[in-house]
Amino acid sequence: MLHEFLVTNRAAIFARARAKATARPAPLATEEELETGVPIFLDQLIEAMTLSRTSSGEQAQSAAKHGSDLLRRGFTVAQVVHDYGGVCQAVTELADEMQVLITADEFRFFNQYLDDSIAGAVTEYSRQRELTITADGRERLGELAHELRNSLGAAMLAFQSLRTGQVGPGGSTAALLGRSLLRLSGVVHSSIARVRLEAGMKATERMSLRELVEEIAVTNSMSASSRNIELIVAPVERGVDIEGDRQLLAAALANIVQNACKFTPSEGRVSVKTFATRDRVTIDVADQCGGLPPGKAEELSLPVQHGNGDPVGLGLGLSVSRRSIAASGGHIRVRDVPGIGCIFTIDLPRLRPLP
Question: Cα–Cα distance between 286 and 269 in angstroms, integer?
């Protein structure tokens, strides 16, 4: 029944899905997407229903090929997710309006195929995208990092929409995007900071500490939630300004908060508190890792040494975070709280208030 419905009403489903793509605020639909992408999604679904007895492996291969095609056409991951979701909504809405009887098994297959197709397409898209990374030097790596960071926000929104949409939050798509976003978030920020530091790129500006901390709170809330950790960010008073490279400072702070969440056990707590005096501001990031081994706090507090790896396996970020903070005239220190956790403190100069 569902296959016949899709074939008979293809034009109406396409028009409805196209309208949904056109109306969405972000990412904006492209002409290529409207004229080519949406029909491809719909035809792929019809073919899947025709070959509903095909093995899941063959379906996965089909989705992977589709992801590769999308990359060559210039589609983004966000467009893939939104367009699959738009087709799904168009089908269910039209079937409901026409009072078409579709069995539970058909709907189950329908939703499962959409879920697996999104996951397969995104996986292949990501694999192909990584293959395009070549040794073009620091400039190319910096461009890639910026590009990935700009698309990260849209991917996060797409993931959140999946959690409440036709594809269930427990499916392979949600799990894939969740893992990818958490990994990309840390890698992207650290990559940007590392490239800019090594290239000597620095863009100093006056910025609001309140806005900087709020930005970090938003971008890290998903990471904390996925680990069942309570992230508490104390509000920053207005009028507290600092000077430095916004991207480097944001990357450093984000990395420290992410590491705090990483080493804090489930149902634990990570807090971010800011203190300001007339001349200095400090940002305390406290975790519940259980405390550091003897002497480790002193080791972490040693001055920056270029080329050294992070001493306790804190990912890409601690050495890069140190250098990023130092580039803005500040420093990082660590305090161990035995049996509870540790506190990373970012100390920066405070600017005088504007007249």
Answer: 8
